Amino acid sequence: MPQHYAVSMIRQVATAFALQDAHPVALQPPGSPNRSVYRCVIESETGAFILEQVAAELVPRKREIAAALSRLSEAGLCGVLVPHQGANGDLVVRVGQTWWMATRHVPSDPLPRPEWAHDGVRGEALAQWLLQLREATGNWHWRPSRIFRLELWLAELVTQLRRRDPTVLARVRAPLRLAQEVLLQESNLPTAWAHGDLHPLNVLWQGQAVRAVIDWEFTGPKAELYDLANLIGCAGIEDPAALTGGLVCALTRWLHLRGILAEASWRALPAYVLALRFAWLAEWLRSDDGEMIELECDYLELLLASQMTL
Q1: How much is the pTM?
Q2: What stretch of H or E contains 104?
Q3: How do the domains of the chain map onto residue ranges?
Q4: What is the pLDDT at residue 5?
């Protein structure tokens, strides 16, 4: 993975997106750096953009995501950063032997940590955005085979843990049983189009308002409670008291009042929050982050003990 490119290469990439007189600037792109091979912020005559090098094997998926973002923007969803079109009309452009995307760089305010996890105003802002996402995709249709099933994914993870990390598997046996139990119902829950990785660090904030939402790598049809469960889980690992704090209470209260979830989804939510944390555990295992693996195992036990209060 290159740590940097020569300015001449960056200008060549920018030109492929019709961004003239471009030069790199010392700004850190928001979002996870693990989503791309390389990325940087440039200034051009057209404004500031993030250039992102894409692994060749991910180009088809990146095109799917770009198409979904374009469709969401056309449907009026606020906060969608549609990739910038290349000079050839494509949203994923080949430059030499490399593939690139360009997205407008949007300034944002830093997220106060851990205070955000108790911020009811942000909770309501996230709830409003989730409702807008549901409204924007309400008439979308997809094949049943496209629906992501956490139940099937979790079964694969257990197989891997049994072979590679039996100690971790033994540690999470009790939370795993509850996760497997609730996921037996997953195919009966309503589905909706999900962001797929919605948490406050993937939101660009303007004060306490949502300015943009980024990192759509896992977007697609999922159980309708997926994004909500991920938000709640991320609040709780920031601060366990936040599971019943201002952000979560405002978020769930507002969504309940608007009727965004079926009653079956609300009943499944506490256990689904726990089940979805196994995706985060898998992420820590992939990166061999011992500290986060230990924290996630502790958190799974806490979520198991907290089911009656969630």
Answers
A1: 0.95
A2: strand 98-104
A3: 7-104, 115-305
A4: 86
